[in-house]
Structure formats: structure tokens, C-alpha cells
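sry for the spam today, last one i promise. C-alpha cells for design, 304 residues
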């Protein structure tokens, strides 16, 4: 499938998926009702404050979940999102916080023109953040999206991109683990090419007994739309993603981990209080255990 056709298909599915989330996404993931505190919000705010930036772009801002937490901190805030319903909600909640309507617009991270604020097309940002977006970016377009972020900031500007940690699958002992073992470590198709099917089946059955393939439950949609696990929702290897950042032209590239799990997720039901307390106690962006025990990370870099 040609890249532009594939992109349109992926983006249409993602738009449909998020079309019903506008009014509850922030509540479900960024408030006291969230299953886990939004520790990455403080992480990104600190990055921006420490960098001394002024003009900040949120590429894929959703219903302004991150922007709400940045309001009142002295930043000039801008954002765009792929889903019209998310853009409408973002404008609604940010207006009382002093953010103009034309500071939030529709756009795709795959489109370089989306990174230009309407009426201020030539202005560069001091920083660009991108949270919850790259799981939905096709691999073939990932480098282009990173290049767009790089081009959106001034020289010396900061870019911070969040991603789901693929290496976390080595700790989860569930269907993600099986997928990572077979697709990325063993490379099943290459290994078993030309082999007897019975050998392949024996090995797969043996591995299947080592993981909880029923976990986690597949997340479906709420009103007939595809759910998060039914659209493109990739994970990223932080070691590889860091290299891609550097290849695009960023310097001082760092990997910062968050959303730690003190035990494999399948143990949470056995001791929920211990699980939550122990996990929060682990939150430390540069702890090496984050490579395996944190479900997400942020890669940061400075435009040279």
C-alpha cells in the first residue's frame, strides 16, 4: 500500500477511535480518577521550565490534557490535533485559561505544514512536545514526523516525545511478551522458514504456556468505533528511538522513564495497594530499571 494511502487509512481509524474520547480522556488519564497518576505531566513541565522556554507547541494535544497543566506557568501555548472533536474540546477548556482559539488547530504530525501556527507561519517554537501520538504513527513515517518536530523549533530548541516502552514486554509476562519474543527477538518468520510445521508448532505451544495470553484485555471502543488496541498502537524500543532522535539532528539526547511497575501487571490484583504504592515509589526518570519496569518513556533532544 502506498505511504499516503496507508497514512490516510491509519489516520481515519485513529480519528474514529478518539472521536468519542474528547469529553472524558482528560478525566480518565489526568485527574484523581485516573488508574495511575499522570507523573509524566510533572516530568514534561520540569523539562520546559528548566529549559527556560517561552513558546511551546503540543503536537497531538488531544483535549489539551498536557496544555491544561502548563497553563499559568508563563508559557505561550499552542497545539494541534488530528481529531476534530479533540480540537473543539481543547479550545473550549483553554479559552478560560487565556489561550486564543487560533492557538489550537487541526493537523497531523506527518504534515510539516501542521507545525505552523495559523497567522504565524514563519515563527519557530522554543519547544515542542508530543505525547500519546507516536504509537499511532506508521513506522514508514516515523522519521518524517521526527524531522517535522525538529524543524518546528528554533536552533537550541527542545523537543520531547513520549512513547510506549517495547522493552517493558520483557517484564509483563503477558501477550505483549509473547509478541515481543516472537516478532522482535526470535523473529519467528525468519527462524522457521523452511522448517517442518510440527517443529514450529511445538516451540510456539511451549512458549505460549509461559505467558498469560489473555492479558491485558483488548481495549475496544465505546460506541461502535474501534478501540485503542484495534487501531495502530505501536510500542517503541527506547534504545532504537534514541538513535533515531540523534539521526534526525538532535543533540544531548536523553531517555527518561515513567509509569513504573514494581511487579508484573498480572500481580496487581493480588496486592493492589502494594502495587500502586511500590510503583509510585519507583518513579525516577533515569533509573536503569526503567528500560524494563516502566511502561512509557520520554525522549528529549536539543535542535543543534
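last one done:
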Amino acid at each position: 500500500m502506498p505511504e499516503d494511502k496507508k497514512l490516510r487509512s491509519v489516520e481515519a481509524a485513529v480519528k474514529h477511535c478518539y472521536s468519542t474520547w474528547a469529553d472524558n480522556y482528560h478525566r480518565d488519564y489526568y485527574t484523581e480518577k485516573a488508574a495511575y497518576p499522570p507523573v509524566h505531566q510533572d516530568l514534561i513541565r520540569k523539562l520546559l521550565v528548566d529549559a527556560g522556554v517561552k513558546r511551546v507547541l503540543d503536537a497531538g494535544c488531544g483535549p489539551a490534557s498536557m496544555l491544561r497543566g502548563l497553563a499559568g506557568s508563563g508559557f505561550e501555548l499552542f497545539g494541534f490535533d488530528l481529531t476534530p472533536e479533540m480540537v473543539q474540546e481543547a479550545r473550549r477548556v483553554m479559552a478560560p485559561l487565556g489561550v486564543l482559539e487560533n492557538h489550537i488547530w487541526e493537523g497531523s504530525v506527518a504534515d510539516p505544514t501542521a507545525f505552523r501556527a495559523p497567522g504565524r507561519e514563519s515563527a519557530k517554537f522554543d519547544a515542542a512536545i508530543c505525547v500519546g501520538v507516536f504509537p499511532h504513527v506508521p513506522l514508514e513515517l516515523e522519521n518524517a514526523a521526527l524531522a517535522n518536530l525538529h524543524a518546528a523549533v528554533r536552533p537550541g530548541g527542545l523537543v520531547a516525545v513520549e512513547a510506549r516502552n517495547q522493552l517493558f514486554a520483557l517484564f509483563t509476562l503477558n501477550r505483549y511478551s509473547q509478541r515481543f519474543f516472537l516478532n522482535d527477538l526470535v523473529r519467528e518468520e525468519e527462524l522457521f522458514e523452511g522448517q517442518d510445521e510440527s517443529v514450529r508448532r511445538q516451540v510456539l505451544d511451549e512458549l505460549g504456556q509461559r505467558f498469560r495470553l489473555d492479558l491485558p484485555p483488548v481495549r475496544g471502543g465505546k460506541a461502535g468505533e474501534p478501540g485503542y488496541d484495534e487501531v495502530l498502537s505501536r510500542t517503541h524500543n527506547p534504545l532504537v528511538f534514541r538513535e533515531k532522535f540523534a539521526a534526525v539532528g538532535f543533540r544531548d539526547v536523553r531517555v527518561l522513564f515513567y509509569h513504573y511497575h514494581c511487579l508484573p501487571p498480572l500481580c496487581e490484583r493480588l496486592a493492589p495497594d502494594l502495587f500502586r504504592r511500590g510503583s509510585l515509589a519507583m518513579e525516577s526518570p533515569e533509573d536503569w530499571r526503567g528500560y524494563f519496569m516502566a511502561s512509557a518513556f520520554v525522549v528529549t533532544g536539543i535542535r543543534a
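The longest helix spans residues 3-18. ok im logging off now
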